Amino acid sequence: MGKRGTIVWIFSSLSFLSAIHTLEAILALFFNTEVILLKSYPIINTLNISPDTYLLASAAATIAMWGITCKTAIETPVERFLDRMLLDAKQQSEIECEMVEDNRSVLDIMSETITENNKVLAQTRDVTYNIRSELVNLRSLPEETHRLSAEIEELKKEMKNLKQNFKKPNLCPSCGNMVLPRFKVCPYCGENLYMTPQKAVKMLKTYT
């Protein structure tokens, strides 16, 4: 707007000067008045321009300058349409910028939600892994129980054998003390408990 105003002011001033020259040419042509304004232009004054030529030139310059002034000052429909399109485009751009900002905010919220969901999923995965480990341990419990039951049965058999051995102890052929059958050496005298025929006869004579 400032540039257009400057151009309008310049060409309107030139139009005014051209109109003054045209008026002077009309007076000089029809009323034989003296031409004064041309004397202020030394180069043009040396050309000895006739009043007819002066009138035509000044009138043409006035029309041209006034046309340029009007063309610059008056807004044409095309320019008005273009300005309106530019204004609409600017407003649309501002609306789109606001929409982009809103979408960016929504995307930020979605990103935060996805991050939180990833954390929850990671925790759920860890809990699931722990539960699976516990289930594997629980699956092995029947086998462990069966193995422990078998060991308990073996211990029961061993205890039963020990009780029977305590009820029927052997006698040491050397010192005569009662010794468990599983002993190979007498814990009292150190005699070898593997029976030989001589030791068996000697033990029978001793107790008869």
Helix and strand arrangement:
Elements lengths: L1 H30 L10 H4 L5 H23 L3 H91 L2 E2 L6 E2 L17 H11 L1
Antiparallel strand pairs: 1-2
Helix pairs in contact: 1-3
Describe this structure in words.
The chain has 208 residues and is mainly alpha-helical. A hairpin with a 6-residue loop joins strand 1 (170-171) and strand 2 (178-179). It has helices at 2-31, 42-45, 51-73, 77-167, 197-207; strands at 170-171, 178-179. The mean pLDDT is 77. The protein contains 5 helices and 2 strands, in the order H-H-H-H-E-E-H.
Biggest sheet character: 2 strands, antiparallel
How would you describe the oligomerization state of the chains in this entry? Answer: single chain
| Poorly predicted sequence stretches spanning 5 or more consecutive residues | none
- Portion of residues within helices: over 70%
| Alpha-carbon Rg, integer | 66 Å
**Beta-strand percent range:** under 5%
